[in-house]
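Per reviewer request, we include the raw input and output of the structure prediction for the construct analysed in the revised manuscript.
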Amino acid sequence: MSKNIPKPKTSTNPQAKGQEVSNSATKLCELIGQLENGDSNADNAVAAVNSRDERIKRLSRRTLEVLEADRQTISKELHDSIGASLAAIKFSLEEKEMMRVQNNCRLDESLDQEISYLMSAIKETKRISANLRPATLDDLGLMATIDWYIRQFKQMYGDIQVHYTAEISEAEIPEFMKIIIYRIIQEGLSNAEKHSEANTIHLDLQYEEKDGKRISLTIEDNGHGFEVDSVLSNKDPLSGYGLTAMMERCEIVGGTFNIASAQGRGTKITAVLPVETSSIQPNRH
């Protein structure tokens, strides 16, 4: 016994057929759009990864350049300062030893000059060591280290007035962030002395909670200023802890770094370091 299999209903209405075609075309367009969006998102993801990789490469190159610059600076200071003092002591002692032999083992002159050379070498050794990493940072903390550094700066550059204000406690500063703040202050004051011809520097360190916990650091001088874009684009990577390195130190902990300057209008450096969101804790160096 055969069964009648119903045939699929087909519309003989031309308008209905046209609507079906239109609906199919719309779905096809939507599908194509989804595929295109998928390709676009994939392209954007690939571009983002490539951009990140390129940035990591640039930062790696920058790190190597700064490390090499540090080695170059230390080598030069050891050679020109401590090396010269030790060489002077050596030559002076050799000369006096010859005189002692000629005088039948008597030494008529004192060793005051050699002692002076040794004191100078010891002083230079302490200075180089402090520039690398001051012992007070580990022993007494950041606030004491900033006070020490400003005293040293004033003694060395007496014609520059440094006005320092701070509304922050040692306990409010994350341990890993202390070296970052110190390096920014160190480089900021050094730049003002070397390049700006300023006679007044304002240094301000604050702990703020209005937009989340953060540390704000401002260094402002009344020097002749400079064109920021021009200097940053032509900055010598072997200049040590320069403006670019200061900026990168801030970025490592998720902070922001801004330089405001113009010819004849001084320079203002502002670094804002978030305390709660600083999840990356770099090694101290």
